[in-house]
Design a protein that fits this description.
Pfam families: Glycos_transf_2. One of its GO terms (molecular function) is dolichyl-phosphate beta-D-mannosyltransferase activity. Belongs to the glycosyltransferase 2 family. The chain is an alpha/beta fold and about 210 residues long. It has two domains: about 45 residues, no CATH class; about 140 residues, no CATH class. The chain contains seven helices and eight strands; from the N terminus they run βαβαβαββαβααββα. The protein has a four-stranded mixed beta sheet, with helices on both faces. The chain has a two-stranded parallel sheet with strand order 1-2. Helix 4 runs parallel beside helix 7 and helix 6 packs parallel to helix 7.
Length: about 210
């Protein structure tokens, strides 16, 4: 509401066992189906891009904000930044200005820093934080990027920025202080790290 825009919230649940769907249905009862749209996707082919595709089918606005459901983000600064430079994409950055991370252990910090460092060296994307998921997109830009991207898992976020630069879209950055979630657990594990590295070197070889 603080952005001055009319809004809707689309909740995409991948069949997780943490009660997301039940909470979303409660929110529909409170705010109404015109404000809260919820859907459950149960598929072995589910990945982050799948959620984007399903969400866009139901989005009616000109801008789409991608964010986790743990409420660790603040939306208003993104709309302010978008208006400031008429950007196609506004991305949160933990590694620029007064951005930072709180609540992570040393291992998690090293993994995130290392992933971003390798990305900067190999791809030179022109953005300081490529592994974060909190972003604002023009709807038509998001649609085009999802069509172009082939990655799955965590590397998908990185490819979105790399493809955006290739296509000439403008990207603004907002420093964010990311506070680790109080509820739930991260899905980041060894398999995701290996997948990220494979995707990184694939992008390096093909872009």
């Amino acid at each position: 509401r603080c952005s001055g825009h009319d809004f809707e919230i689309i909740v995409i649940d991948d069949g997780s066992p943490d009660g997301t769907q039940e909470v979303a249905e409660q929110l529909v009862n409170i705010y109404g189906p015109d404000k809260i749209v919820t859907m459950e996707i149960i598929s072995i082919l589910f990945f982050l891009g799948t959620a984007y595709i399903h969400g866009m089918k139901h989005a009616t606005g000109n801008f789409i904000v991608i964010m986790d459901a743990d409420l660790s983000h603040h939306v208003c600064l993104y709309f302010m930044k978008q208006k400031e430079g008429n950007f196609d994409i506004v991305s949160g950055t933990r590694y620029k200005g007064n951005g930072g991370v709180y609540g992570w252990d040393l291992k998690r910090k090293l993994i995130s820093r290392g992933a971003n460092f390798l990305t900067q060296v190999l791809l030179r994307p022109g953005a300081s934080d490529l592994t974060g998921s909190f972003r604002l997109y023009r709807k038509e830009v998001l649609q085009k990027l999802v069509e172009k991207c082939v990655s799955k898992g965590y590397v998908f976020q990185m490819e979105m920025i790399v493809r955006a630069r290739q296509l000439g879209y403008t990207i603004g950055e907002v420093p964010i202080s990311f506070v680790d979630r109080f509820y739930g657990e991260s899905k980041l594990g060894g398999n995701e790290i290996v997948s990220f590295l494979k995707g990184l070197f694939t992008l390096f070889a093909t872009t």
